[in-house]
């Protein structure tokens, strides 16, 4: 692994040297590949175009990120920004690399969560779009365009993660392949119309199973906080260490979003039926609402309170997109038609 890590660091250094003037672009790409973006950006956009695809995106995002967390706990992947210091291989060699505000994630590095969740969720989108285009045009070339975009996007997200020293190339490749497989498998069974008890059971099952796995590994003498200690030790700036990048934050996000999806379908089975103009308005308002929900400051001490509120925050996300905003838009547009 040392040779693999060394080559990965040298690739990152070369990428930074050649494309440092594109730093802002790499930062935007890595933020678009953030698993959080699947919940806050991709889900609402997809939902107001195709209800089934939107539900599938949220479902796939939650399950793929949960699996990514489990894989990281089991695989103990290093991250370049701390491995460079820990390995001490570059003390006598000239290596110029730079960290960024999104570099210092605290979880283990393998496989890449950005690549894995992006590959899984965007497969839902591009496969649906490709099928739609083929059904309308019967053109293989036109229907293949979304899949070309899919490949280019995965390459861009992977390179952005290498550029900022968050992942090694092999971690990005592993995440992309695993995410693609999950996207294909999970998108075949979309939980539309399932009862609230189903979502409650899945949410609590994922939460408890992860906690039990964590406790079991701790009992075996495995310190699962090792990556947090290394991130704090080698991160260039202390303020770049954020609790919302910790492993338990992704766990509470996934479980909260799934419970929220169940509640939303319970409050309004089948969702609101809206024409295209009200759908566009609902998307705009939902996006603004999710932006402000995401920016809500949460107390970081005690951590149990933070994780509890983080869970509630993502329970709210599907309520805004599926129930509240479309309901209000429907109310006003319906009144306008009656008048």
TrEMBL record:
Keyword Plastid assigned to the entry: answer is: no
GO cellular component terms, semicolon-separated? endoplasmic reticulum membrane
Tree of life domain: Eukaryota
Coiled-coil residues: none
Transmembrane ranges, per UniProt, are: 53-75, 115-135, 147-166, 172-190, 197-217, 305-329
A Pfam family: PAP2
SMART domains tied to this protein: acidPPc (SM00014)
Per its UniProt entry, what is the enzyme's top EC class, as one word? Answer: hydrolase
How is this protein situated with respect to the membrane?
Multi-pass membrane protein
The alphabetical list of record keywords is: Endoplasmic reticulum, Gluconeogenesis, Hydrolase, Membrane, Transmembrane, Transmembrane helix
Instruction: Output the Gene Ontology terms for molecular function.
Output: glucose-6-phosphatase activity
Please tell me where this protein is predominantly located: endoplasmic reticulum
Any one GO BP annotation for this protein: glucose 6-phosphate metabolic process
Q: Does the keyword Translocase apply?
A: no
UniProt subcellular location: Endoplasmic reticulum membrane
Kindly list the positions annotated as binding substrate.
79, 161
As for family, the record states: Belongs to the glucose-6-phosphatase family.
Q: Which PANTHER family match?
A: GLUCOSE-6-PHOSPHATASE, GLUCOSE-6-PHOSPHATASE 3
Q: What is this protein called?
A: Glucose-6-phosphatase
Naturally occurring in which organism (per UniProt) = Pleuronectes platessa (European plaice)
The root-end lineage is: Eukaryota, Metazoa, Chordata, Craniata, Vertebrata
């Amino acid at each position: 692994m040392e040779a693999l890590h060394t080559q990965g660091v040298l690739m990152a250094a070369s990428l930074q040297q050649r494309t440092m003037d594109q730093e802002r672009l790499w930062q935007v790409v890595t933020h678009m590949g953030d698993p959080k973006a699947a919940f806050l950006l991709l889900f609402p956009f997809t939902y107001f175009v195709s209800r089934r695809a939107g539900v599938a995106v949220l479902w796939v995002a939650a399950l793929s990120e949960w699996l990514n967390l489990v894989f990281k706990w089991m695989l103990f992947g290093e991250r370049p920004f701390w491995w460079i210091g820990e390995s001490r291989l570059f003390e006598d060699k000239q290596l110029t690399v730079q960290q960024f505000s999104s570099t210092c994630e605290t979880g283990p590095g393998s496989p890449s969560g950005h690549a894995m969740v992006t590959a899984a969720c965007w497969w839902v989108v591009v496969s649906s779009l490709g099928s739609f285009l083929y059904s309308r045009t019967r053109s293989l070339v036109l229907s293949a365009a979304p899949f070309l975009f899919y490949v280019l996007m995965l390459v861009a997200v992977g390179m952005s993660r290498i550029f900022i020293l968050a992942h090694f190339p092999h971690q990005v490749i592993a995440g992309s392949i695993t995410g693609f497989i999950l996207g294909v498998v999970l998108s075949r069974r979309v939980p539309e119309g399932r009862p609230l008890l189903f979502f409650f059971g899945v949410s609590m099952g994922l939460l408890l199973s992860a906690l039990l796995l964590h406790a079991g590994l701790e009992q075996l003498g495995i310190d699962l906080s090792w990556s947090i200690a290394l991130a704090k030790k080698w991160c260039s700036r202390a303020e770049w260490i954020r609790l919302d990048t910790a492993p338990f934050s992704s766990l509470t996000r996934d479980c909260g979003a799934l419970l929220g999806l169940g509640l939303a379908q319970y409050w309004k089975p089948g969702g609101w039926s809206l024409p295209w103009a009200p759908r566009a308005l609902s998307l705009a308002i939902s996006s603004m609402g999710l932006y402000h929900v995401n920016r809500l400051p949460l107390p970081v001490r005690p951590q149990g309170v933070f994780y509890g509120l983080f869970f509630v925050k993502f329970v709210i996300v599907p309520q805004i997109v599926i129930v509240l905003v479309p309901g209000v838009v429907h109310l006003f547009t319906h009144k306008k038609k009656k008048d």
